[in-house]
Amino acid sequence: MADDKIKSLLSEDRHYAPPRHGKDIARIRSRHEYDALCELARTDNDSFWAERARGLLHWFKPWEKVQNCDFNVPRVEWFTGAHLNASYNCVDRHIITDRRNKAALIWQGEREMEVRCYTYQMLYTDVCRVAAALNALQIKKGDRVALYMPMVPELAVAMLACARIGAVHMNIFTGYADGGVLSRIQDSGARVVITADAVMRGGEPKPLKANLDRILGQCPSVEKVLVVNRANIEVNMLKGRDIWWQDLLDDFTLDADFPCVSMEANDPLFILHTSGSTGRPTGVVHSTGGYLTYAAHTTQWVFDVKDTDVHWCTADCGWITGHTYMIYGPLSLGATTIMFEGTPTWPRPDRFWRIVEKFRVNMLYTAPTVVRSLMRQGVEWTNHYDLSSLRILGSVGEPMNPEAWMWYHTYIGKGQLPIVDTWWQTETGGVMLSPLPYASHITPGSVTKPLPGIEACIMNTDGKEEEAESGGNLVIKKPWPGLMKGVHNNPEKFKSYFSTFKNCYLSGDGAKVDDKGNFWILGRMDDAINVSGHRISTAEIESVLVSHPAVGEAGVVPIPHEIKGEAIYAYVALQDNIEWTEDLRKELRNHVRSQIGALASPEQIQFVDELPKTLSGKILRRLLRKIASGDLLENLGDITTLARPDVLPVIITDRSRLAAGQPEKLIPKT
Ligand code: WT7
Questions:
Q1: How confident is the model at residue 525 (pLDDT cuts 50, 70, 90)?
Q2: pLDDT tens-digit profile of 304-320?
Q3: 566 lines ligand 1 (CB under 6 A)
Q4: For 239-271, what is each residue's pLDDT tens digit?
């Protein structure tokens, strides 16, 4: 980044006061107001959340208890006894107001001229029809519906239709391939899968339905497959099981006013899998009442969304960010939400700015990896666009490095706009630590402070709170409505979040707090890798590698990557008598791609004779990680616990050979 302007800004004591413009109508306007809200939440937590829940959502029946949580059990229960429906809150209640004919969802397809716009009334009609169609297929409250769909409006409609009848949706990112899709469908026990013929990527359809066809034989729970025609490509339709979405909805007898099911606040709204610390994905379960309250609450406070705003969250609905900040948050507030099917650089790197100008976007919420890749394309791509509608910029998924922060601030925010760097997780349902755009003083790289009502701190391994400036475990000390209410089919995993520190939720992230009380996220403490803001489990990749007949053992670690933040580095020890060849390296990479998906594809695979292990046989990933990043023997720290220290020098030499584009040296086994 050879830009003098940015360089000089970086050398300043970087510290940004909240903007004055827009402040008069902002929700939270000063540090003083923020402090007062924190105090309120601290002294009377239940009333604080009860007031938010009452003010933001429509409840069919009030709660008996604001919360009934106990981290020791663990039990997470919010708004006990209350009734509501998420689809009612996101759609129905707006069509009896002036919002009836405003844009609820604007869809920008991959091609520039493909735009579809749903008013709240139109969204209502489609959601009702899909709900009626699912009902006709005997899908009932509590049944799981898997959504393996591209970013098309039908996906939003399907999510809201499930919510309407109380079915639990489980979205699967379209970047996942066979193994990733299979484990999720099997874990959820979905009765229906909704998919499309293909997903559009770079002007070409990439088959989706065909991926399902290969695995559905192993998914006995699946009775019906609904297929949206996105790309008009040929697909196999199995008679009796597969139905075209369009055919199903063409039915004139479908009820265009299909009623909502009244849900208890703790009935599940959706399951979303995230990478666990084992090979098995974690099916995070979110409740209806607590989750929706927290989605609406954080959308309103963190992004200062008013119902006149156009909110654009660029995440895919296969991730929690798409759930909370594209669908449930903005729609429950009656705002306009943008859904973009394409990628930031196709057909040209000005795609985002064109969309901002075209729809007069007010909030732009994206990931550091996107900012870094656009920054690399050059600032000239932003030049010809009017970005003056933007009011707030957001970032999520991984730490935002100061260079990217400055670029975002300078060229997109024109040096004026607040950037909310939001820290949260699939498990937390919504943003936990973040600046408030009109109240916080921001230092690039820091996620600043917990939102009011969130009690976060840094704990060392003894369970003591750390002083300022020392790193440790980021934990949350008090329940909040967005917290997951369980892990599907895996109560032990759910317990594990609460068992390390008494009465605390363990985030799995390392962080530190500075002397001003600002939080800095240092990265995962467990074996997860963060590739382009996506959490991927090393164990999952290792188990896929080991499932290949040529592989004996595998050790997977993160390495720093300029655009992606982190990339995947895999060490592979082959079975006896199998040769190290470039073909095999390619084959193993494709194996991971086809089993998990392209996002898990290793940046580099290094063949090793043997992995460094302790005497008890544990792979020392700490060492592998350092070596992959280029550390030499003298920087590896304590290696006395190694069973065979002599394997290290070879691994180190081979790593530098690979980095220089040469293959490893084949050494005969001793
Ligand atoms: C992990 C959660 C929450 C939506 C996207 C990812 C990392 C998230 C930040 C941030 C530094 C961040 C953490 C976290 N992370 N936001 N602003 N700064 N790191 O959801 O897949 O559940 O991953 O992403 O490591 O634990 P997820």
A1: confident
A2: 999 999 999 999 999 99
A3: no
A4: 999 999 999 988 888 878 999 999 999 999 999
Atom of ligand 1 nearest to the CA of 431: 3
Ligand 1 center to 521 CA (angstroms): 9
Question: Tokens in use for 43?
Answer: 């002294």
DSSP code per residue over 551-599: EEEEEEEEEEETTTEEEEEEEEEEPTT----HHHHHHHHHHHHHHTBGG
pTM of the prediction? Answer: 0.92
Regarding the beta carbon of 398 and ligand 1, being less than 6 Å apart is answered yes
Does the beta carbon of 530 sit less than 6 angstroms from any atom of ligand 1? yes
- Domain range annotation of the chain: 3-121+263-508, 528-659
Residue 12's pLDDT band (cuts 50, 70, 90): very low
Nearest CA to ligand 1 atom 19: 398
Q: Are 78 and 265 in contact (CB under 8 A)?
A: yes
Residue with CA at minimum distance from ligand 1 atom 1: 425
| Distance between Cα 423 and ligand 1 center (Å) | 6
> H-type helices in 115-259, by residue range?
120-136, 153-165, 178-188, 209-215, 245-249
CB 509 within 8 A of CB 523: yes
Q: Which CATH class is domain 528-659?
A: alpha beta
Report the chain's terminal Cα–Cα distance, integer Å: 48
Indicate the CATH number for domain 3-121+263-508: 3.40.50.12780
Q: What is the pLDDT of residues 359-407, one digit of tens each?
A: 999 999 999 999 999 999 999 999 999 999 999 999 999 988 888 999 9
Q: Is 447 in the pocket of ligand 1 (CB under 6 A)?
A: yes
Atom of ligand 1 nearest to the CA of 447: 17
